[in-house]
Amino acid sequence: MKKWLLLLLGTLVWPLGTATAQGMEPDWPEVQKLLENRCVICHGAALASQGLRLDSRERLLAGSSNGPVVIAGSPDESELLRRIRGESLPRMPLTGPPYLSDAETALILGWIRSLAPDAASVSRDPDPATPEPEAQALEDPGLFSRVAAVLVPRCATCHSPNGRMGPAPEGFVATSHASLLDARERAWIVPGDPRASELVRRIRGQSLPRMPFDGPPYLSAADIELIEEWIAAGAPNDQGQPAPLPVGARVRLGGTLSGHWQLDGLPLKVAAGTRIRENLRVGQRVEVRGWVESDGTIGVERIRAR
Ligand code: HEC
Ligand code: HEC
After folding, report:
1. How close is the Cα of 178 to the center of ligand 2, in Å?
2. Tag placement on the chain: N or C end, fewer CB within 10 Å?
3. What pLDDT, in 10s, does the model give residues 11-42?
4. How many angstroms separate the alpha carbon of residue 68 from the centre of ligand 1?
């Protein structure tokens, strides 16, 4: 008996809510388009960073796991705008720069100002009786999507151009496939070989300090395995194309000497020109500097105790 009543109420209440949004918030359609283009990749159904979804007005108003992100009528106190302006860090969008233009920022400001005082008092828990259609959108995300869903929320908070600690530590940016594999400075990932990838060494704690820097908690064993699987498969992008081997790129690997010359089981190519500073013993913590050879092995320039 109650079901039809709820349905009837639903049809009565829903159009009213929509009419309010359309009537009093003329900027909403533009705001929605902007969020869709710049934010929903990380604040949507597949990956809701910080529990915040920006793929509908209701979800935006429901806020993040920290609470509301907009305060109706008070843009300056709204975390949404503070993140967009970089007053609160890390600045959004996390993929920036570029950040939002002045005109786009003004658009969001105007929309928050136009919100009715009671607009944000939306229940944070969607009605449990209502099935969530978006919940089924996660059919079979690609390997990289699953990796990004682990790395972006845990690493990009610091490893983005304007993160929690300012510029990305060591220049390592974890916001996209391209930035993770950017080897101009150094290769943090050697496609095909997790053991030669400093990123893996850091999340396993073989190389110190262990990442994420704000851990524990560190990544779960299953998440570490997923990342190793992705690198072993050639670190493919979302289209499944493996990344090219960054031949000649510099590497700096931390770990434990497990043989002459092996780093936690990774064979090292030591040649006549290699500088080995101290009398190194197996079992000792070392730092290896070198480069990626054309066959994917690590040519060593220097090994020293750490
Ligand atoms: C590449 C992924 C990514 C993109 C793109 C992105 N975000 Fe975020 N966002 C995050 C992550 C990760 C966090 C959590 C960071 C933290 O505070 O530690 C976050 C946090 C936030 C928060 C803070 C929530 C709270 O309560 O603390 C707001 C607000 C926010 N984002 C808004 C936006 C807006 C607006 C855009 C688009 C203009 C955007 N984000 C684009 C990943 C992203
Ligand atoms: C709270 C901030 C913070 C977070 C979160 C964080 N890092 Fe870091 N990361 C740092 C700092 C600081 C350094 C430099 C530390 C050092 O080596 O002295 C660093 C260094 C690194 C390096 C070494 C770069 C190099 O050139 O040697 C890698 C790789 C790395 N982080 C990966 C990650 C990964 C992967 C995650 C997520 C699982 C992560 N970080 C999360 C702050 C952070």
Report:
1. 17
2. N
3. 444 444 444 555 688 899 999 999 998 898 88
4. 13
